Structures are given as structure tokens and as C-alpha cells.
Amino acid sequence: MREIEVFIDTEEIAEFFFHELMKRGFVPNESEVDELADITFDYLLKKCIIDEELDDE
Q: What is the average pLDDT across 32-39?
């Protein structure tokens, strides 16, 4: 298996959840979709799908 580099943007995840929930008739607020994005990121970390790299900036 080869390794690929993937960048996960929680803001992009939050926007995706917002639009998908709206399509399904839900009206989430910003803090709710931000929380879902963070949970999704944590899930990907826990399942070892991604590794977290912290910026040194």
C-alpha cells in the first residue's frame, strides 16, 4: 500500500455537513456543524485514517 498526503480542513467539513443537513430538512447552527466537524476529525484520527500534524508556525 502506498502512502498519500491528505489535508483535512474542519471548516470544509463543517460547510459540507451544513449543506447536507439543510438538504435533509435540518437547520443546524454554526456551533453545531463546527462540533460535528471536530467529531468527524477525531473519528478519522481514532480509526487511524489520518495522522495529525501540527504546524510549527
A: 96
